[in-house]
Amino acid sequence: MSLKNRLGFTREPVYLIDGSAFVYRGFYAYPDLKRSDGFPTNAMFIVLRLLAKLLREEKPAYLGFVLDGKGPTFRHALMESYKAQRMRMPENLAVQIEPLLEGLGKMGIATIVSHGVEADDVLASLANRFKKDRPVVLVGADKDLQQCLDENVYLWDPSMRKEKLVTLESFRTHQDLVPGQWPDYQALVGDKADNIPGIPGVGPKTALGLLKRFPSLEALRDGFERLSAKEQTRLKPHMEDIFLYRELTRLKTDCCADHVCAQLKINQEDMSAFLDFLDAYEFHSLKREFARDDARDTNASGHKMTGTFVEPVHGEALPDCAGKQVGMILEGKGVRIGLEGREYLFDACSMSLVTALGTAQSIAVPSLKDVLYHHRLWYLVPLGTWFDIGLAEYLLDPEERNYGFERIRDGLSGELDTHPENPALTACRIGELLTKRLEAGDFIPLMRELELPLIPVLVKMEQNGIRLDLEAFAAFLAEVQEKLDQLTTAIYQEAGTTFNIRSSQQLAEVLFDRLGIVSRKKTPGGKPSTSVQALEALADAHPVINSILRYRTLEKLRSTYLEPLPKLVDRENRVHTHFNNLATATGRLSSSKPNLQNIPIRGEFGPRMRGCFIARPGYKLVAADYSQIELRILAHMSKDPHLLDAFARNEDIHARTAALLFDKEPEAIQADERRKAKTINFGLLYGMGPQKLGKDLGLTLKEAKEFIARYFSALAKVKTFYTDVEKRARAHGSVTTIAGRRRLLPDINSRNANLAQQARRMAINTVVQGSAADVIKKAMLAVDRDPLLHKTGSRILLQVHDELVLEVPAENAIEVGERLTVIMSGVYDLDVPLAVDWGIGDNWAQAH
DNA sequence: ACCGAAGA
DNA sequence: TCTTCGGT
């Protein structure tokens, strides 16, 4: 549905497009699109496609396309380093700008090229003037545009798979800021992309806290005395700079005084020149689309209207929910309820509402996790009452990447009898439909006994967070930064040029073209690879290679961990990750914003990195991890006597495998032989074939095949297990884990051998990896419910696939560690023991 | 094999 | 979107 309808505009809105953003995005997103003579057309294509969609769906009357001009802007005059690290426009993109402007002209769209200011400034200035007369929709993704939000100004990004609309209201509920405070906020936090440093150690949480107390930088300066001593020392050295930073972020609202809205009127009376233009650049699909749109005046909203719309009641008389099926949608602070064909709106969550809903038979919601975050009162509704629509869909097909309500609704639209503008009634109906499907697939126990109860545990873990040692982070970062600076000069010298070492493209050019090193490995895309594996093989060819490898590891450390993490801490220096329970095809959790499941552990810097994650004063971290859980599951499922025996005796499994493979006593196994056995053990869990194994072990294809054959003849029951999994996958088109989790693998019966082979590997890996995920999820529930852990004041902080990290009062740490291992090893009764290793420490490194 | 983040 | 690299 168009924005006009959704937002109920009464006057024609004007759309202002941040052209530069889309031009760049298109350029990187579609690197290979070219005309047959080689002229690059990728950026043009993306922009034109975006406009086509916008014209078709929005039917705008006024639209302006704004591009950055060439020269420097006033911001460069304010600060030299501004956007210094951003490269100048690549040649392949620059050549597309003129033709693009020409095309837009023929399309009847007004373009504005900014000079001395950036495109965003033009957008802000025009929005500021036009908003008095009509709604303004800023089309773009730059977060700095949020400062323009107003009752009549909207920010919209339709280019992603899921469009993003920010209104004044949604901004307020999400940000706890007024749009006008955005520049003040950015000045404190900094912005790496624009090279605005911000204040070290001040992340979003701190900045929001400060702005809550002092609404502007001026107020902050004037009230400086009222800050705590710690805050004063942190802020003092930067108090002058932040005013400059704010000027860089603040968009101008007073340029383009001579533009009037009438100039932005779309004029598509004659499209023939534009169609010729599309021909000239070989945009055939776009031409078809425009020719079609030109021919018929479409009027369809594109939305299938089933059921009749029911006007929602503004509820102060509560409906009787007892024993009924209910659907619920959260809208900002408010709540929308649907039952028995009626919808009710409430301004906020309240005790009486929660009590009424608690008597329902079931409440279908798009995401239970969101509900629990919405208000603490929701915890009072019995867990068994909730029905999580996203979760249900995930269990039915874990390979959809999008479990948003809209996607699911549209997928089921054929079977819905509700109006799309009655989302709560729709949710209720979807709940009914999906319940039937879950029953048919035998997913109810998995849903009710594992996945749904896990959600409040995940929320607790996220809210607990884990504490960072900020001093240690700062010292670490300073060291790494200094080494990086030294390496940069060394590399430029050794290579004989300066270039962007972070760019694999430029690096490949320098190494393989300029220095004449012969590349051996290729990327999946067919270009010469500069990965660690590829570079290590070339280490002898040139001294610069080793410097580059070292630069890579340090840069990774800096950019992924050392720099971003301290910015995310709250008042107590704790970071709060998101544990996503609908993210993986195998049933594992994933962690993001920040990802705490890939914090380095190995190598020169791993222990030091994990040492920066600490327990709060008076507490210890207790970490417990399953030992070889996936191989143990393989042992249990295959019933292979060698594996069962090795685990029963708690032997070194890789050494034992090596002994079988090389026909030696386990004591006589060499390190290299153990390494090979380890690689093949892991490889087979991934369903790895001989090519990949050979590559990893440096063997020829023939040797690798023999090696695998030897493995399977020694571990014959593993072989039969593999073929059984494959057979079952063929027969059902899916595989199932111990807890009844299912992954669909339609490709396993494909005539395309590659696809079938890929599906075969997924089948094996999913059974093993997914079952391991079931085991630890069950353990998490048991840990959460354990009275002793509760009594000792333990809190669960992290899950890293086979590991749990708890924070515990120091005096109880040993007791908790012991209890934890008992719980974790006891969740499933397998044919092998589930061994658990654990440790205690003041930080995560020690606890290992 | 399964992820997420950063950079271009 | 692709490449790379950190984790399991």
From TrEMBL:
Signal sequence range: none
Keyword Acyltransferase applies: no
Highest taxon above the source species: Bacteria
Listed Pfam families: 5_3_exonuc, 5_3_exonuc_N, DNA_pol_A
SMART domains reported for this sequence: 53EXOc, HhH2, POLAc
Record-level Gene Ontology MF annotations: 5'-3' exonuclease activity; DNA binding; DNA-directed DNA polymerase activity
UniProt EC number: 2.7.7.7
Domain 5'-3' exonuclease: 10-267
Start and end residues of each DNA-directed DNA polymerase family A palm domain: 606-812
Coiled coil: none
GO biological process annotation, one example: DNA-templated DNA replication
Similarity section: Belongs to the DNA polymerase type-A family.
Protein name: DNA polymerase I
